[in-house]
Amino acid sequence: MKKRNLFSSLLDWVWESRSDLYENMTIRDDDEEVNVITKAEHKEDIEKVKEKVFDAADRGSFRKWRFLYKILAVVFAVFFSAVLLITVGQLPKIGEINNPANNEVEKRYIEKGLEETGATNIVAGMILDYRAFDTLGESHVLFVAAIAVTILLRLDKSERDPEDTKITETITEAEEEDKIFEPHHDAILQKVAMLLVPIIILFGIYVILNGHLSPGGGFSGGAIIGAGLILYLNAFGFENTERFFNEKVYKTVIFSGLAFYALAKCYAFFCGANGLDSHISKGIPGHILSAGLILPLDIAVGCVVACTMYAFYAMFRKGGL
Amino acid sequence: MCVLLSFLVICAVAVSFSKKLLNSVLIFMSYSLIMSVIWMLLESPDLAITEAAVGAGITSVLFFVTLNRIHSMFKDASGKKKEVKEDEEKKSVQ
Amino acid sequence: MNTNLLNNYAEAVSMIIFAIGFTNLLLHKNLIKKIIGLNIMDTAVYLFLALKGYIKGHVAPIIIDGVVEPEAYINPIPSGLVLTGIVVSVSVTALMLSLTIRLYKRYHTLDLDEISLRLKKEGL
Q1: Boundaries of domain holding A40
Q2: How do residues A233-251 score in pLDDT, each as one tens digit?
Q3: For A316, which of B54, B69, B93 is closest by C-beta distance?
Q4: Do C100 and B13 touch (CB under 8 A)?
Q5: Other C-beta atoms within 10 Å of A60: how many?
Q6: Would the CB atoms of B42 and C50 count as touching at under 8 Å?
Q7: What distance in Å separates residue B80's CA from the closest CA in chain C?
Q8: Does residue B36 lie within any of the structural domains?
Q9: pLDDT tens-digit readout, C1-59
Q10: Are residues A126 and A272 in the same domain?
Q11: Among A76-85, A112-121, B79-88, C56-65, which is the least confidently predicted range?
Q12: Quick check: C3 and A90 CB within 8 A?
C-alpha cells in the first residue's frame, strides 16, 4: 500500500475520493425507499386534485372551522398587540443615558476595548474576541442550514434510464425547466457583468480585510462576495462558473474555514467563554495587520459565508453544485 | 425617522394585501432596503451593511428563484394563473 | 403608571409591525406569504433590539482619534446581538423555501389547507 502522509489523506477525506475509514461501507439503495412515487402515480394525483379541489373548499364543517379560526386569530392578534403596546408604554425612554441597558459591561467594552483587543471597530472586536463563542455557534448554524438544503434539494442522477420510473427529476431535466426564463447569451447582461463583478468581489475583499477598522466584518463581506458570484453565474451560465468553483473547491473552503475557527476557539467549552490570550501581537491600532487573531478569524468567516450563499443559490437553481 | 417608520408600516401592510406573489416579494425587498436606512439613522453601520447585503440581496433572490422553480411567478395567491402570460411563456421557450 | 407610548414611538411601531407579521403568518393560506410574514416578524424584533442601544447625541462605535470615553459612543452590545440574528434569519428562510419546493413537487399545490387534507387522507 502506498504510504500516504497525513495531509493528503485529510484532503482525500474532504473530497471523498478515497478513504481508509469506510472502504466497505455503502449507502442504502434508493430502490428500497417506501415513499417514492412513480410518474404514473404523480399523474393520478394531479387528476384527483383537479377533480376534487372544489370538494375541499365547499365541505360544510371545514367552512365552519375556517370561519371560527379566522375570528379567533384576529382576536388573538389584537389582544397580543395590545399587551405588547402596554408593555412598551412602561419601558424607559429611548435614548437616555441612565437606561438600565447601559450598565458597566458597556463601559468596560468601550474603555478597555482598544487595548485588550486592538480593534478600532468596537462591535467587531466584541463579537470576535470577547464573545467569540457566540460567533462560533452562528457559523455552525449557517453550516447546518447549508447541509439541510443540500439534503432536501440535491438531485442525484444526471441522466434518466428509460426503464427507471421511480426518479422524479434529474439534473438535466431541472436545467431544461430552469431555462424558460433565462436570457441566453444576453449582450447587455454580459457586458455589465464583465464590468461589475470584479468591482463587487474587490469591494467584498476590502470589507472583510477592514473588518476591525471600519464598519463591516466577516458576514457582510462574505455576503457581498457571494452576491458577486451569483451575478457571474446569472450572466455566464453554469459551465463557465464551474471552471473555477465546483464541488471540490466548495468542500475544501468550507471545511478549512470552519475547522480553523473551531480549533482556534474550542477551548471556550472548558474555560467558560472567557477569552484566553493568543500570543499574536496586537500591533498598532489603525493598521490592517493588527488586532491579533481577529483578522484570520474574519477571513475564515467571510469565506464560509460566501460559499454558503452561493451554494444556496446553485442548489435552488439546478439541484447540484 | 417618523416618515421612514410610516413607510415601513405601509410596506408591511401592502405585502399582506397584494394579490400576486411576485408583487409581494418585490415589496418585501423594498421593506428590507428601508430597514437598512433606519439602521443607519440609529448609528449602527455594521447592521446597515449586513442587512443591505443579506436582506435585500440574498433573501429576495432566493424568493425569486423559488417562485421560478415552482412555476408560480405570475400566479395569484390562490393559485390561479392569468391566461395572457401562457402565450408569453410559449414564445420564450421557442 | 407612566406611559411613555408617544415618546417611544419607534418601539411602538416595531410592535405593530410584529403584530402585522404575526397576522400574516396566521391568516394567509399561501405558503410563500407565511414565509414572508415570518421574515417581517424577525426584522421587527431586530429593530426593537437595536433601539435599546441607541443613545441620543452619541455616535457610532468606531474609535476616532483615540477617544475612549463611554460618553462618546452608543451601546455596542445590542448591535452584536442583532448581527448574529440577521444571519440566522437568512438560514431559516433558505431552509423553509427548500421545504416549500419539496412540498410543491409532491402535492402540486401551495395551499396549506389542501396539503393538510391530503395528508389526512394518506393517514399520516
Answers
A1: 35-92
A2: 988 888 888 888 888 999 9
A3: B69
A4: no
A5: 7
A6: yes
A7: 11
A8: yes
A9: 567 788 888 999 999 999 999 999 998 889 999 999 999 999 999 999 999 888 888 88
A10: yes
A11: B79-88
A12: yes
pLDDT tier at A9, thresholds 50, 70, 90: confident
Does residue A174 sit in the same domain as residue A46? no
Nearest residue in A to B61, CA atom:
A313
pLDDT tens sequence across A196-223: 999 999 999 999 999 888 898 899 999 9
Q: Look up residue A313 and give its amino acid.
A: Y
Mind listing the pLDDT tens digit for each residue in A142-178?
999 999 999 988 887 766 666 666 666 777 777 777 7
Which range among A59-63, A185-189, A262-266 shows the weakest confidence by mean pLDDT?
Answer: A59-63
Closest-CA residue to B5 (of B45, B53, B56, B42): B42
Cα–Cα nearest to C63, from C73, C71, C48: C73
Confidence band of A102 (pLDDT split at 50, 70, 90): confident
In this complex, the residue of A56, A89, A134 whose CB is nearest that of residue C114 is A56
**Euclidean distance between CA atoms B58 and A222, whole angstroms:** 11
Residues 27-86 of B with CB under 8 A from A: 44-46, 48-50, 53-54, 57-58, 61-62, 65-66, 68-69, 73
Cβ within 8 Å, pair B51-C47: no
Mean pLDDT, chain C, whole residue set: 88
Residue B20 belongs to domain spanning = 11-93
Give chain B's domain count: 1
What residue type is A138 in one-letter code? E
* Structural domains of chain C, with CATH: 9-122 (1.10.287.3510)
Quote the CA–CA distance of C70 and A102 in Å, as a whole number: 10
B37, part of any domain: yes
**C67 — contact with chain A (CB < 8 Å)?**
no
Interface partners of chain C (CB pairs < 8 Å, 3 or more) are A, B
In a shared domain, residues A131 and A225: yes
Mean pLDDT of A63-85: 88
Q: Please indicate, yes or no, if residue A313 is contained in any of the structural domains.
A: yes
- Alpha carbons within 13 A on the beta-carbon side of B74: 10
Number of domains present in the structure of chain A: 2
Is C63 close to A169, i.e. CB distance below 8 A? no
Count of Cβ atoms closer than 10 Å to residue C74 Cβ: 26
Asked if the Cβ–Cβ distance from C50 to B2 is below 8 Å, we say no
In a domain, B2, yes or no: no
A286–C contact, CB cutoff 8 A? no
Q: Spell out the alpha helix ranges (H) of chain A.
A: 6-15, 39-58, 60-89, 104-117, 122-125, 132-153, 171-178, 187-209, 218-241, 247-265, 268-271, 294-317
Considering the domain boundaries, does residue B24 fall inside one? yes
Question: How many angstroms away from the CA of A19 is the closest CA of chain C?
Answer: 31
For A141, the closest of C15, C26, C91 (CB atoms) is C91
Please indicate whether, in this complex, the C-beta atoms of A219 and B54 are within 8 angstroms of each other: yes
Q: Is residue A265 part of a domain?
A: yes
The four Cα atoms A228, A232, A233, A237 give a dihedral, to 10 degrees, of 180
pTM, two decimals, is: 0.84
Count of A–B CB contacts within 8 Å?
51
